Amino acid sequence: MTLSNRTLGVGVVGTGWVAASHVRAIQANPHVRLVRMCGRQETRAREKLARFGADVSDVGFTRRYQDLLDASNIDIVVVATPNHLHAEQAVAAANAKKHILLEKPTGLDIRELVRIRDAVHRAKVRTIVSFVLHYNPFIRFAHWMRKAGWLGTIRYARFQYLSRILSGYPGWSWVRRADSGRSHLLAAGCHAVDAMRWCTGLEPTEVSAYHTKFTKGYQWPTSIVVNVKLGRRAIGQVVSSTDFMMPYTFGVELMGDRATLVDGLILWNDKAVSLAELRRANPFPDVVLREARAADGNPAIRVECDMPASADVRQHPFQGEMDELVHCIRTGCESHLNVFDAQKTMEVCLAADRSAIRGGRPVSLPLIRS
Ligand SMILES: NC(=O)c1ccc[n+]([C@@H]2O[C@H](COP(=O)([O-])OP(=O)(O)OC[C@H]3O[C@@H](n4cnc5c(N)ncnc54)[C@H](OP(=O)(O)O)[C@@H]3O)[C@@H](O)[C@H]2O)c1
Fold first, then answer.
1. How far from the centroid of its chain's Cα atoms is residue 275's Cα?
2. Domain presence at residue 281
3. Of 58, 171, 253, 350, which sees the most CB atoms within 10 A?
4. Ligand 1: distance of its center to the CA of 175 in Å?
5. What is the DSSP string of 157-221?
């Protein structure tokens, strides 16, 4: 039987908060079957997964990651462990010829990124990196709107990942540490960097960043502001912080020479965006466009859909990434969110952290020459 018509086996390493979401996504895809979980302690793992809403009562368990790699009935490995384990486990999975769903951040330094790139390149396996916002209706709409030309040429973009993560987070024991969490951008704000790249379609060429620390308990700075040169002429900013006294906010601003998308509002200046035409062109049934008013009373358009408004992974669209990976494996095509693309996001994060450590000195991109 070929890969295209048999049920694919999946093994998951990591048995925490996000693993539970991947388990649900695996169980909802008709072409895959969850074969085995891998964790450090079975009773605790099963209890945690059940608490986070995943039923793994009929799924095998192992403490040895190698068991997932040796199993001939496992085709896909989902890596959902703390950040410092991702690279090692992804490289091992690629070497074992397993397809990979890899949690962000992919690698925590240049060496790890290069190792992942080379291993996946050699093994020719399919990968998808868990920048799950690509499947959020609003981020998907923002990407489409720019790509379809409704905003014109992008001049400025700002993406903000503002989430006050404290000891209530299930991964608090490792995320706050420098060895395993590493930095705010690597642990969290990489979502904003990635969304900026995807939504603008522009690659950062240089960054300059400042960071600071307000929130106690972390071994790394808890806020970073990154100025970005985007492509040839555009500029942008990424803010990644755990310090602000507000609910989780994922801010999106895309300013083109034709129109602007600021969070849920489409604004313009010289030439109006036609609501009727935009409605006709909008390919997403789950995105509703309504007449609205800008702050100055002028006409605007409101985008109504599921916004990236929650830090709770139970509300994140993990189904989309699992379905895309499975589709790519079955049809032999490349995913749009593979480790090679994600590497570019990670390089921006590493460059920004490097710049902030050096007091804001600009750092050029890419860091890794192919
Ligand atoms: N894409 C997204 O939107 C998103 C959202 C949240 C998190 N994440 C990412 O997902 C990953 C997991 O985060 P989480 O929130 O699920 O954290 P978590 O709840 O702490 O889960 C981590 C799991 O890894 C296990 N683990 C810890 N150390 C291990 C080791 N040395 N060997 C094997 N397993 C080990 C833990 O098991 P024990 O029970 O034994 O400690 C725990 O089950 C992180 O990389 C995070 O950045 C991504």
1. 31
2. yes
3. 350
4. 9
5. EEEEEE----TTSTTHHHHTSTTTT--HIIIIIHHHHHHHHHHH---EEEEEEEEE--STT-SS-
Q: Ligand 1: which atom is nearest the Cα of residue 86?
A: 45
Whether 179 and 288 map to the same domain: the answer is yes
Residue 362 inside a domain? The answer is no
Instruction: Provide the whole-model pTM.
Output: 0.97
- For the Cβ of 21 lying below 6 angstroms from any atom of ligand 1, the answer is no
**Ligand 1 contacts CB of residue 41 (under 6 A):** yes
Nearest-CA residue for ligand 1 atom 3 is 132
Q: What is the domain count for the chain? A: 2
Contact 78, 22 (CB under 8 A): yes
How many angstroms separate the alpha carbon of residue 45 from the centre of ligand 1? 11
Ligand 1: which of 79, 88, 103, 324 to mutate, judged by most atoms within 8 Å of the beta carbon?
103
Domain of residue 90 covers: 8-133+315-341
Q: Are 12 and 82 found together in one domain?
A: yes
229 in the same domain as 181: yes
- CB-ligand 1 contact for 170 (6 Å cutoff): yes
Same domain, 56 and 106: yes
pLDDT at res. 138: 98
Confidence of residue 370 (pLDDT cuts 50, 70, 90): confident
Other CB atoms within a 10 A radius of the CB of residue 67 amount to: 15
**Per-residue pLDDT tens digits for 26-49:** 999 999 999 999 999 999 999 999
Tracing tokens 């308990």 back to the chain, one arrives at 217
Q: pLDDT tens digit string along 221-230?
A: 999 999 999 9
In the predicted model, is pLDDT for residue 320 greater than 90? yes
- Residue 175 falls within a domain, yes or no? yes
pLDDT tens digits, residue range 264-286?
Answer: 999 999 999 999 999 999 999 99
